[in-house]
Write a structure and sequence with these properties.
- This protein is of the alpha/beta class.
- The chain has six helices and five strands; from the N terminus they run E-H-E-H-E-H-E-H-E-H-H.
- It starts with 10 loop residues before the first strand and ends in a 36-residue tail after the last helix.
- The chain has a five-stranded parallel beta sheet, with helices on one face.
- The relative contact order is 0.09.
Length: 202
């Protein structure tokens, strides 16, 4: 995502455990990156919501509330995050879709279930990339819900490239080299007007 300087920011993923709040490693990470545009994506592995204020104290100490996204499978952890500081963005982690684009009605039901679950915690949808289709992404995007699929590896590089081209909001990967062949930027000299009849899909 662009920064105030116009340069792309770097996101780092960080699995955070309850004992990290007092560890030297945590402070070293924040200290080393405090003067950068790095955006922290911190996964709280435990369902223990008491770790949230501990982590928040560290986030506040380094004044990076606006550069942190906390993701978790745990609803109570995400609720606690919002209660502690609503400015911090959150992502609701979930498993694979049970429906595919072959059954659009079942897919719609999946979409509304996911949106309902995520909205309770004021969170984005962070779902396992398996079974994700362009139709699924479009349904979420049309409703203003951001999608952050996980976790792409070298064996799923084609899915990574497809979802990158769809325009999903973020991709989680263990293999950063997958990004080396993606589009970095592009210029549009002229944008043509498109007309559509009422009821036609975009």
């Amino acid at each position: 995502s662009p920064t105030s300087t116009g340069q792309p920011s770097v996101s780092i993923g960080w699995n955070w455990a309850s004992d990290y709040g007092t560890s030297d490693e945590s402070k070293e990470m924040f200290e080393a990156l405090k003067d950068t545009d790095v955006y922290y994506v911190i996964e709280l592995k435990s369902g223990d919501e008491t770790m949230v204020p501990v982590l928040y104290d560290l986030i506040k100490e380094y004044n990076v509330q606006h550069r942190v996204n906390i993701i978790s499978f745990s609803g109570p952890v995400l609720k606690k995050t919002y209660d502690v500081d609503p400015i911090i963005s959150a992502g609701y982690l979930s498993g694979s879709l049970t429906a595919t684009a072959a059954d659009m009605e079942a897919l719609r039901i999946n979409v509304f279930q996911l949106i309902k679950s995520a909205q309770v915690y004021n969170a984005s949808v962070n779902i396992n990339h398996a079974n994700i289709s362009k139709e699924f992404y479009t349904m979420l995007n049309d409703r203003g819900v951001t999608l952050w699929p996980w976790t792409f590896q070298t064996g799923t590089s084609m899915a990574f490239y497809n979802e990158f081209l769809w325009g999903v909001d973020g991709l989680t990967t263990d293999d950063a080299q997958l990004t080396k062949n993606t589009v970095m930027d592009f210029n549009v000299d002229k944008v043509g007007a498109n007309t559509m009849a009422p009821g036609n899909p975009m």
